[in-house]
Amino acid sequence: SPRSSPRSRGPTSTPRFLPQDLARSGVVLGFWQSIAARAAPELEPIVNDALAGRNLAGVRAFADQRSTRTLLGNVKAPTFLMQGRRDFAFDVDHALAAYTHLKAPKRLYLGDFGHPPSTNPAAEAPHVLPAARQWFDRYLKGLPNGIDTQPPVEVAPDPWTGRTFSYRSPPAHKTLRLAFSGRKEIDSTGKVVRTLPRRKARLETFGPPALRVALSSPNGWPHVVAVLSAVTPQMREIVVSSGGARVRLGSRPKQVAIRLISQVTNIPPRSRLRLTVAATSTAQSPGNLLYLSGVPRSARLVVGPARLTLPVLTKPISR
Fold it and tell me: For FRET with 16, which of 97, 105, 143, 246 sits at 20 to 30 Å CA-CA?
């Protein structure tokens, strides 16, 4: 029956494409273009409002009415959650929130699959798909195959090696505190880039980075986007996380808090962490399509010192 059937699925909470009142426009547009021809008529105005940053109360109300987050504690079905480590459409906190709120038997797998920039290695499927079948066999057929006695949280390394790591609860992490100094004024197409010295050890993020940055504007700047990346010794730049916020700025510096999306990112040893602040994520790289909406051409932004808290695994699992 529906009451007792197990579920094997991805993120269960409503996607928050409008964090801090700024739409992840690249994600919204991508999904909208894939469904627009068959979408309900009332959806298009909501999408347009989200992209334009207007009627935000109406956009949030529309999403809240369709969210399952507040209902998760009532779910009785055994649930197997599968989530990508690096998925810029649905971040890891979607799955972690669902896992936390579910009271029924539950299991969480964090792997290398998902929306971009996930690598989706073909070799991972033969590992995770049999586990899903075991879950169904245990809770639909009642077969005592032992999956319910295994540690319920499983995390794959990046890149995929064929070996995963299991935990009784989400893995332990610590918080790094980083400072980016300086002051610079930019125009609507400009960017501020600050790069820290190399870090000797490998880092593996786990959770949402949080940025606090001093911002001001002489003539108004409606939103700001921050991208955290890592530059490897081979000069390859890895996007660690991104975030944005709608802001109200004046001529006096104001501390603005920006929550970046939650990812599990492998940062190789001797990499340099880099912060890019601008109006769009494409300022960091033309291929970074998360935040696409610009600001008025006449807008000016002054970026002052910034502080970042970065949650990382106590013991990295990737190599």
Answer: 105
Q: What is the pLDDT of residue 237?
A: 98
SS (H, E, C) 216-285: ECCCCCCEEEEEEEEECCCCCEEEEEEEEEECCCCCCCEEEEEECCCECCEECCCEEEEEEEECCHHHCC
Cis link prior to 159 (omega < 30° from 0)?
yes
Distance CA 47, CA 62 (A): 10
User: Is 254 in contact with 207 (CB distance < 8 Å)?
Assistant: no
Give the number of residues written for the chain.
319
Residue 179 has pLDDT above 60, yes or no: yes
Out of 44-53, 67-76, 115-124, 190-199, pick the least confident: 67-76
Instruction: Give the CB-side neighbour count of residue 73, counting CA atoms within 13 A.
Output: 2
Handedness of CA 228, 231, 235, 237 (dihedral sign): negative
Work out the percent of the chain whose per-residue pLDDT is above 70.
95
